[in-house]
Amino acid sequence: MKQHYLRFARYNQWANRRLFAAASSLAEEKLWRDVGAFFGSLMGTFNHILVADMLWMARFNGEAAPAVRLDGVLHRDLPGLTRARDAMDETILAFVDALDEARLAADVDYASTRGTRFSQPLDLLLTHFFNHQTHHRGQAHSLVSQLGAEPPVLDLIYFARQA
């Protein structure tokens, strides 16, 4: 299972880098334009993914959740958000690389953003974690296209063919 999650961590990093590179061709006004997405804009969507990653990584590590809302804006500029995204992706890779099968099967006790307590296996939570990123990255991919930039290919099979 560890290799499975390492593949997803590497794919996640690859896809984020491609999507952020495509977004970098857009004017700041377009990055923040409210286009009716769940988090309003492309930058709102990018910030949400980072916020959720921070929350989950804190939960995985048994740390206190950061005091940030799911729609919080951590970075108002794309270069700053790109650096934070790159750093988070490196953190995710290091975390997954350090896992063993026993840890993957072990339960993680955590609280939702509403304070409800849960205890679930780490492997299930990691599956959700990567699926959540893919879900919102798909939305961001569509926004990149709608805002006039060329959206990159993000299919997992293209990543696998390059690896």
| Overall 3D shape | globular
Report mean pLDDT, rounded to a whole number: 96
Structural class comes to mainly alpha
CATH superfamily: dinb family like domain
Relative strand content: 5-15%
Indicate the multimeric state: single chain
**How many beta-strand runs?**
2
Strand arrangement within the widest β-sheet reads 1-2
Element pattern in H and E? HHHHHEEHH
Termini distance? 19 Å
Low-confidence stretches: none
Largest sheet: 2 strands, antiparallel
What is the radius of gyration computed over CA atoms, rounded to a whole number of angstroms? 16 Å
Q: What percentage of residues falls in helices of 4 or more residues?
A: 55-70%
Using the coordinates shown, work out and report the CATH topology: Four Helix Bundle (Hemerythrin (Met), subunit A)
CATH architecture: Up-down Bundle
User: Can you tell me the CATH class?
Assistant: Mainly Alpha
Number of domains: 1
Total helical elements = 7
